[in-house]
Amino acid sequence: MYYAYKYRLNPSDAHRDELDRHRDICRQLYNHTLYRLNEYQDEHGELPSMTTLRSELPDLKKWWDGLSDVYSKVLQTVVERLFDNLKGLSKLKENGYGVGQLKWKPPREFRSLTYSQSGFKLDKKGGQTVLSLSKLADIPIRLHRAIPDDAKPKQVTLKKEPTGEWFATFGVQMDREPPQPPENPEKCVGIDVGILKYAHDTDGTAVGSLDLSDERERLEREQRKLSRKQHGSNNYEKQRRRVAECHADLRRKRRDFLHKLSAYYAREYDLVAVEDLNVKGMMESPSNSRNTASAAWRTFLSLVEYKCEREGTHFIAVNPGGTTKECASCGVSTDKPLWVREHSCPACGFEADRDSNAAWNILSRGLEDVGVGYSEPTPVETALPVDTPVSAKRVVEAGSPTLKERTASAVSE
Fold first, then answer.
1. Which of 127, 242, 314, 357 is deepest in the core (most CB within 10 A)?
2. 124 exposed, middle or buried (CB, 10 Å; 0-12, 13-18, 19+)?
3. What InterPro entries is this protein classified in (predicted)?
4. Which domain holds residue 188?
5. Model confidence at 393: pLDDT above 50
């Protein structure tokens, strides 16, 4: 399997200047390659191949001062990056989206460069771990966790964040294959995500949403200060970086919470069933779009999916339509407004917490989709035992010691 390991770099001022210089050369090469692509298309009536444009690099070095200072593999990945962007536009066009043309990259939009296959290695120099980069420098790196011994680093991407920090992301290939999911899963869970409670599962656990109100107020305060600065001045640049740090703080805390929660479900259960939510469509709704964006449901589902694959756990994304309306006991649909937080079935009299009822329906659909260990599609009888508690047995607030204990082994990546 292919994994990514991200580490913080600790470059000196001289290293930062050299990193920025190499990054800007790569940006100019990207823009030049885009110019050559458009020129070739106008002359020949078709797009050139990636090999054609990549073969022009040796001739460019003869008249382009500074191009030879950058490692050759880094220059080749710049050309590959352009064609990857073209493939992305083609896929969007095939899916019915209106797409334009690729544009030239200004300095603020080209923030990374990639060493592929060679030109980089981890080394020990002066009593500290450094990342040795060909034709660049030996940059100190903070290895907060070790790369597994059986992992083969295939590439490393250096990226400058808007805060000015530099990070190195290693792409590694593992020799071992992930474990196979069990044929007859014993520990199964259905998860219903929401705003008031982030996750409500069929084991009776309700995980509170992460409270980021203080961080948002701080961000808004710093943004108001930025609006009063003169654009382009030194004070504007300092305040812009402060705003970027507030954004990064929000992002780190949210992803830390999502990593720990997703790792817990992937490691503790044999089967995880979730809703296949159309978050993009929900974001276009005029109401509550800010809370929907802050919840980052799509990110959470993506994290759960790849961690379930890594841990050998079944991952099922089911159709979310009607999971709140349907009764988990008899299957009868009952309309209820959003402010009604309890489910009460008029047909069978089954009463439960609204989110708990939805979680059981999600698990039932997941078991039906997998079809392992069950001879016929009877999701209600299979997923909901007679003596099942229908409300949350425990409510875990995000960031509380209880959640930290449950996710102690689920270290965020």
1. 357
2. exposed
3. Cas12f1-like_TNB, RNA-guided_DNA_endo/Transpos, Transposase, Transposase_put_HTH
4. 180-210+249-374
5. no
